[in-house]
Amino acid sequence: MTGDQAVLEVRDVAVVRQGRPLLDEIGVEVRAGEQWALLGPNGAGKSTLLALCGARLHPTRGTVHVLGHRLGRVDMRWLRTHIGHVDPRSRIEPYLSVRDVVLTGLHAAADLPKRWQPTDAASVTADALVGSLGLTARADARWEVLSQGERGRALIARALVTRPDLLLLDEPTTGLDLAAREILLDVLGELRVLRPELATVMVTHHLEELPATTTHALVIAGGRLLASGPVEDALDSDVISRAFGHPIRIDRVNGRWSATSAARVG
Ligand SMILES: Nc1ncnc2c1ncn2[C@@H]1O[C@H](COP(=O)(O)OP(=O)(O)OP(=O)(O)O)[C@@H](O)[C@H]1O
What residue stretches are annotated with the ABC transporter domain (predicted)? Predict the structure, then answer.
């Protein structure tokens, strides 16, 4: 990938299944250092779009370039090794320590290969990430005893261990209580300092879950684009009301968003 190339370039994309478009006429360009939010109601097509971005799916029509490589003309498995993916539903072997969970990111697997030993450089990277994610005191704790919040942070460290240029987050705050959610959002904000060139795309249904550092947003509903661009331009009450099919008022205080129903009761 060259310096001025987009990290992600989706052009006029459709994904069709059983004759039905799950996505249609979707376009977006994500550049290094941008933090995107991908918003929309249930069934909008967010996971389908994220699968395209993560080189896990080909478009039916249109073109997708990920890290400068066009899907369909590149080894998808190789490309995926350059993309970090945080999915709270990832399967992880319960007996692995936090440090080993992070190292599984090098193999994109639920477990470490038998008799495999990390290089010194890999160990140093994993320990540094464990520290950056605030998990040093839990580095030897087993996955099965971690809290949901600790798991969320371990999964981010795991996704970063290959030093990807693109990080995809699929509803990373799922199942977290308020404090754990806020800690995770702080961590995502700190990525701007830790890895300033890293581009991120985070799927969520909830505006409250957008880190204050979010730079851009893309809103879809029914597989179609409703808004896309810098977050201040893309998000407003009208767009969110149309996306979710309900009158909603959105507000922003200290960089964080909130949403409330604007429907009259009674
Ligand atoms: N392989 C498939 N074949 C047919 N339909 C599919 C397939 N995958 C997804 N769909 C449908 O496509 C639509 C979009 O699904 P997708 O999972 O991308 O939405 P989403 O925005 O991520 O939803 P949610 O917020 O509920 O996770 C849904 O109606 C879903 O049922």
Answer: 8-247
Q: How far is the CA of 66 from the centre of ligand 1 (A)?
A: 21
Residue 63: is it exposed, middle or buried by C-beta count within 10 angstroms (0-12/13-18/19+)?
Answer: middle
For tokens 């939010």, the residue is: 37
Q: State the Cα–Cα distance between residues 157 and 250, nearest whole angstrom.
A: 32
Tell me the best of 16, 39, 48 to mutate to test the pocket of ligand 1, counting ligand atoms within 8 Å of each CB and taking the most.
Answer: 48
Dist CA 185 CA 179 (whole Å): 10
Residue 174 near ligand 1, beta carbon < 6 Å = no
CA 42, chain centre distance (Å): 17
Write down the pTM of the prediction: 0.93
Ligand 1 center to 175 CA (angstroms): 21
* Cα–Cα dist 223/23, whole Å: 4
What is the bridge-based pairing of β-strands 8-17 and 166-170? unpaired
pLDDT tens-digit readout, 12-63: 999 999 999 999 999 999 999 999 999 999 999 999 999 999 999 999 999 9
Domains along the chain with CATH numbers: 1-82+167-179+204-266 (3.40.50.300)
Name which residue sits closest to atom 23 of ligand 1, judged by CA: 43
Distance from Cα 16 to the centre of ligand 1, integer Å: 11
pLDDT digits (tens, 9 = 90+) for 197-251: 999 999 998 999 999 999 999 999 999 999 999 999 999 999 999 999 999 999 9
Instruction: Identify the H or E element spanning 259.
Output: strand 256-261
